[in-house]
Amino acid sequence: MPDDLDHRIAQLITTRVERPEAIAEAAAARVRPDSLLDGHGKLMMIAADHPARGALRAGDRPMAMADRTDLLRRLVTALSRPGVNGVLGTPDVLEDLLLLGALDGKVAVGSMNRGGLAGTVFEIDDRFTAYDAAAIAAAGLDGGKMLVRIDPEDPATAVTLESCGRAVSELADAGVMAMVEPFISHRIDGRIRNELTADAMIRAMTVAAGLGRTSARTWLKVPFVDEMERAMAATTLPALILGGEVADDMDAAFASWGKALALPTVQGLVIGRSLLYPPNDDVAGAVDAAVTLL
């Protein structure tokens, strides 16, 4: 990466110590995009909200996302590629990118409920521990994202649903996107596993679509599943396809995303680790290949 970027990343700590107000100043000065969609007519976002849930693994690297300098280099590279027009992150990540000047003209979505830490007994109780709607509006962000995991056997699901419904309403009141990522989930051998079938996704999406006082600003963030056409027929809300874990077969992953993008409801991709930590570590190449699908 250019020496200038390394220098600017190194200066982040100094800025945070000596001029914390620089974050608010950068947010106020950020050039916001004219549209959620790029010239290719889709939303192509990079996701980087995993660390706040303690989810640091990427492929066979258990601590891949633990090096913040390395993560920022990868994010800046991804955001600089033609056709990439957005990023999803928690306050710490988005504020680093703001200070680096990497968010001008990009759709910036704040991740909201990060309390369901990976691998914990309280994982389904996914509390809002990061952005709230007021903070998203104050920072001039373009939306807020929330995870809705519905475990039929965990009563904490009800609290999460209620909190997400309130957040959808508050984001709509602020005039920004509510990005809802729903799953039917089960605890298997002590760990939460998402049920990636068409029937499960239909049920999860129909619940998510009904959250809040209005669905006018609601977008869904969903995985690719078998029988994707049948799954996406369950809603008229715009949807984005998520990337999930780093795939062993990237060609198969690209083929799945391309198939999903052909459906009328699907308006783009939100991909994180698969593009930031591809098997060959060629971030620019992986991102460019994903953009060609659009």
Walk me through this protein's architecture.
- The protein is of the alpha/beta class and 294 residues long.
- The chain has one domain: TIM Barrel.
- Helices cover 39% and strands 18% of the residues.
- It has an eight-stranded parallel β-barrel, surrounded by five helices.
- A hairpin with a 2-residue loop joins strand 5 (177-188) and strand 6.
Question: Concise description?
Answer:
Helices cover 39% and strands 18% of the residues. The protein is of the alpha/beta class.
Point out poorly predicted stretches.
none
Order of helices and strands: HHEHEHEHEHEEHEHEHEHH
What's the architecture in CATH terms?
Alpha-Beta Barrel
Principal-axis shape equals: globular
Q: Please tell me how large the radius of gyration is.
A: 18 Å
Name the descriptors.
294 residues; alpha/beta; TIM Barrel; 8-stranded parallel β-barrel; 11 helices; 9 strands; globular
Structural topology:
Layout (H helix, E strand, L loop, with lengths): L2 H16 L3 H8 L13 E6 L19 H13 L5 E4 L1 H9 L7 E5 L21 H6 L4 E8 L5 H19 L2 E12 L2 E4 L3 H12 L8 E5 L5 H5 L6 E4 L7 H12 L4 E6 L1 H4 L6 H10 L2
Parallel strand pairs: 1-2, 1-9, 2-3, 3-4, 4-5, 5-7, 7-8, 8-9
Antiparallel strand pairs: 5-6
